[in-house]
Amino acid sequence: MPRRAVYLAKETQMHSTLTVPPHREPSAVRNSGVRSVWAGERMLPILEEYFNLLLRVCGPQKWWPGRTRFEIIVGAILTQNTSWRNVEGAILALRRKALLRPAAIAKTRVEDLRPLVRSSGYFRQKARKLKDFVAFLEAFYAGSLTKMFRTPTEKLRGELLAVHGIGPETADSILLYAGKRPVFVVDAYTRRILQRHQITHGEKTYEEIRGLFERSLPPDTTMFNEFHALIVHIGKNFCRPKAPKCSACPLACFLPQPIEGAE
Ligand code: SF4
Fold first, then answer.
1. Distance CA 184, CA 227 (A)
2. Taking the CA of residue 78 as centre, how many other CA atoms within 13 Å lie in the half-sphere pointing to its CB?
3. For an engineered disulfide with 160, which of 106, 169, 171, 262 has Cβ 3.0 to 4.6 Å away?
4. % pLDDT > 70, the chain
5. Ligand 1 nearest atom to the CA of residue 234, by list position
6. Residues near ligand 1 (Cβ within 6 A)
7. pTM beyond 0.90, yes or no
8. Lowest-confidence segment of 9-23, 39-53, 205-219 by average pLDDT
9. CATH 1.10.340.30 region(s) of the chain?
10. Nearest-angstrom CA–CA distance, 92 and 181
């Protein structure tokens, strides 16, 4: 059986072009009539208003931290279920061993990868995931990221999702930040903010929320890059699980009603 079939059977910088939008009074945003489309969720032009406001107030976030496409992919895998601070140590350890290349990971035994990625948590699984990604890359694209990123977005997305340990958020982070494709990354912060702003509710799937953003915004890689990073900024600094800091949050002008327990 060909290697690819066997495999299947088993299972930056882009911030220079954004223009900071002109200031709009929050009341003008609130009264612009966009709330009437919230219930439909077919297209949501207000999402662009969210983005414009966040970019103006918070500025570009300069994501993704990574020197190469492969380093971005490694970071996207290692950051699952942990903070970026924990990933940085693992990236540094891999760099010191000159392992931030697909061929180098491929040659390294999974047992030897584990201690290097330990700081990122779930290190056994994550070492395995790195090995599985480079096995996929070798099987499908002869180990070449350049060849991989020549693949049309939806096809590549499907292939990435078939790799063990790569879920939708990781696949879309790879496509957006390493592949520069206009794919929107949805995470827990996105869900929390949308729910608190009554844009969506907890039963919406990842694909439904991704589709909502991609239908409602121009297919602009730079915008998608910044918007996700800005959402993470708001999630970390204001929209905490308990006692969100709404009074200081730039998105407070969009909040339809006060959040219980908010500061
Ligand atoms: S205004 Fe409050 S609910 Fe809305 S994003 Fe900010 S902290 Fe979260």
1. 9
2. 31
3. 171
4. 84
5. 5
6. 193, 196-197, 234, 238-239, 244-246, 249, 251-252, 255, 259, 262
7. no
8. 9-23
9. 69-178
10. 27
